[in-house]
Write a structure and sequence with these properties.
This protein is α+β, with helices and mostly antiparallel strands and 155 residues long. The protein is built from 4 helices and 9 strands; from the N terminus they run E-E-H-E-E-H-E-H-E-H-E-E-E. The protein has 2 domains: 61 residues, Translation initiation factor 3 (IF-3), N-terminal domain (Ubiquitin-like (UB roll)), CATH 3.10.20.80; 83 residues, Translation initiation factor 3 (IF-3), C-terminal domain (Translation Initiation Factor IF3), CATH 3.30.110.10.
Length: 155
Amino acid sequence: MVRVVGEGMEPTIMSTKEALIKAYNEGLDLVMISPTANPPVCRIIEYQKYLYEQKKKEKERKANSTKVVIKEIRLSPQTDDHDFEFKLNHAKRFLKEGNKVKVDVFFRGRSIVYKEQGETQLLKFAEALMDYGKPEAMPRLEGKRMLIIIAPKKQ
């Protein structure tokens, strides 16, 4: 027993054999739409047209989805003010374009001793970008680099 639905007909429950005969007489196909329902739901439609429309919907959905791009900016614990501003302008541009920005402070040699300086740089950078994006989390240390990811604000 299946529930049969279709263009211009009342949903009715009938045997599978009757449903197949009805679909054959109309020159269409019997397609199972919801096999988990009780009883299973079948539709009398043109199967190739159904597949075509499914592909079309999938393609449209893919076209509308956005891909997240992460741009990376590297600082050092002793980055000068001019360089800081220069990199800040790049980050603003990236956020305006809708990209995420990953800012990291790379510690070379013994500069790892000055973790506070690196964290201060990152927090200052994130604060300067508050109008354009917001940090996803607090700065975190991964090996010899401390990083923060800034996501763009929704328009």
